[in-house]
Inverse folding.
């Protein structure tokens, strides 16, 4: 995090621990979290539903295991990268003799189809099901059926509300808050923010927005000049920012966003003839390419919602459960690496250009170290056959 040394990781977890008091959750969630170490408790806020895990009686079948993955939409580069990384990891488990088969389904945005595909996985006798759920609620019944059949379901990049699943996710509420705090630290004398949300009304967007609102309120001298929706899409974001700038003559000191559209935001300011503000976002290959060509002007504070890391986290949790480790809670929050302007040279690679939207940078170090993940399990120990150093490089060889 930051430069991603262990010292900075501990400093970042310390910052999140201080925000826990300000963003404390309900009593029931606190009871579930009380079984976790303090540094993991610090990753939760009241926007995250958490309960004790319901896998206490799970007994993994004998090896080799049949691994099934239910994808809800394979239609963008992030999902393609996620699935490629998950396949690479499961292939290594196959080579070790732990997994016999890797089966993937894609419902292409149809929740009814995803339910049907997961039901087929149950009937086929899958040992474990990983999924990116297309809905937080629509899959609940079939996931509960999987649990009754003795099949653990692990979600990534979007939680479901049934406690029968194990969710592995970032805390979007804390993410939005930290982006707001980053702006406040960079603008101690205050300033005006252009807020670029994702899909308006989306539950995760509401969580992120609430985090920003809290940070702005705490600052006392930041204001939100305008709010627009970029729909987590580069072209839509650029158009929305251009329209906002055309009708907002006042200076914009920072743009708060939580997607991967930093490059499109910066290009909109350039096109409008406005100075580049501080931009918060998830770092991406195109943003790093833009930074490399505009080092004197590009100001950044953010993190990374990485498809590689999301796949790794789902794989690691699933493999630990199959290995007999017992999760303490049903929702595991993965820490988000902090990326500042000073860190960009470490993340940048030569293949990254301003049009490299399909290239996702690999964190310089594992943002979710094995020793930290151990705290989520009753009998936590290092994930079998997992080595972060073997993640393929961002740039094709």
């Amino acid at each position: 995090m930051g430069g991603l040394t262990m010292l900075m990781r501990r400093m970042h977890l310390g910052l999140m621990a201080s925000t826990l008091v300000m963003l404390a959750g309900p009593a029931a969630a606190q009871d579930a979290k009380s079984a976790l170490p303090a540094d993991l408790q610090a990753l939760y806020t009241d926007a995250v539903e958490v309960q004790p895990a319901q896998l206490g009686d799970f007994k993994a079948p004998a090896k080799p295991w049949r691994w099934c993955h239910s994808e809800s939409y394979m239609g963008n580069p992030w999902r393609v990268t996620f699935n490629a990384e998950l396949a690479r990891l499961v292939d290594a488990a196959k080579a070790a003799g732990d997994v016999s088969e890797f089966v993937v389904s894609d419902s292409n945005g149809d929740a009814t189809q995803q339910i049907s595909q997961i039901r087929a996985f149950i009937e086929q006798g899958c040992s474990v099901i990983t999924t990116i759920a297309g809905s937080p609620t629509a899959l609940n019944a079939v996931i509960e059926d999987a649990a009754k059949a003795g099949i653990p379901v692990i979600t990534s990049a979007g939680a479901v509300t049934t406690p029968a699943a194990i969710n592995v996710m970032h805390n979007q509420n804390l993410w939005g808050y930290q982006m707001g705090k980053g702006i406040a630290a960079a603008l101690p004398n205050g300033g005006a923010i252009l807020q670029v949300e994702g899909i308006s009304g989306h539950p995760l967007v509401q969580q992120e927005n609430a985090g920003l609102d809290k940070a702005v309120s705490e600052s006392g001298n930041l204001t939100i000049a305008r709010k627009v929706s970029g729909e987590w899409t580069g072209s839509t974001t650029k158009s929305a920012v251009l329209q906002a700038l055309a009708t907002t003559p006042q200076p914009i000191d920072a743009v708060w966003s939580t997607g991967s559209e930093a490059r499109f935001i910066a290009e909109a300011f350039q096109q409008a003839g406005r100075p580049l503000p501080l931009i918060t976002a998830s770092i991406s290959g195109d943003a790093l390419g833009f930074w490399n060509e505009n080092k004197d002007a590009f100001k950044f504070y953010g993190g990374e919602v990485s498809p590689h890391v999301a796949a790794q986290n789902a794989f690691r949790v699933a493999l630990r459960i199959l290995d007999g480790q017992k999760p303490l809670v049903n929702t595991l929050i993965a820490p988000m690496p902090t990326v500042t302007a000073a860190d960009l040279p470490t993340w940048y690679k030569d293949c990254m250009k301003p049009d490299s939207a399909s290239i996702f940078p690999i964190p310089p170090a594992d943002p979710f170290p094995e020793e930290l993940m151990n705290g989520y399990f009753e009998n936590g120990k290092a994930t079998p056959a997992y080595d972060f150093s073997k993640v393929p490089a961002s740039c094709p060889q």
Remarks:
- The first strand starts at residue 65 and ends at 71.
- The chain has a mean pLDDT of 91.
- The radius of gyration is 21 Å.
- Residues 77-95 form the longest helix (19 residues).
